[in-house]
Predict the structure.
Amino acid sequence: MEKVIDISEHNGTIDFERVKKQGINKVIIRIGWLGNKNNHTLDKKFIENYNKAINAGFQVGVYAYSYCKSVEAIISGTNWVLTKLNLFSSHRPTLPVFIDLEDSSTSYLSRRELTDHALKFNEMVTNAGYVSGTYANLNWFNNKLYENELAKYKIWLAQYNNEMTANFKVDLWQYSSNGRIDGIFGRVDMNNCLQCENIDESDITGDTGNNGGDFEVKQYHNGSTKEIVYQDLNCSKKIGYLNPWEICECYGIIDSKALVVYNVDRTNNKKTGFVKWLGGVR
């Protein structure tokens, strides 16, 4: 039974090489959270954690924490997740892409509504060629979700106990939030891989042949005017802008658009999006 850790920006800077020396080579990384008003937000450490984990030889999965209160918000959030995963077209997740459903702000929704949220996320992620799944605690799976409908996807259960007592199929069991691992400062979530040992690159069905290969992270130097940043490659939804002469990171060019990670209006909060002007790529 393999150990799996799951991490987010709250775990700080991680030394994956030291973690791996302790026999752990699977990690699930928070990509961010899905907002109810299309205010989806990237985890500040996601790109760093993903790149470092891949470079250290880890199998990687991701999860998105949901605040969504409608299927429309879930669709928007899932599209946002899939866009972010395009950053890693040459190193796609070989563990599942999960939706995390347990926030108190959505607990008033009906069991039918919450299950439909999970089903829509899983359907879209699966259709995009990834393995998908749902994360929740035992109370939510028993009382707020129809777990039998979700069983065709991966199930990630949070139950902090010496024994897993769920009476349904569980693929990944988060048994502690109080783990201690050399290479990670402070506590870390610990999981047992119950039925996901067979998840590897052969399970990823999406076409990876035409989306690009390894890329070199470059800088993007904006010009003398504000440059609009878009959420999608069709440039139909504006999410922000780059200030004149602003410099940020560029993670490649997709469909004649530059994919940038920038600070929101000179704050420490980062966003990812597409810009049309390619003259700033250095």
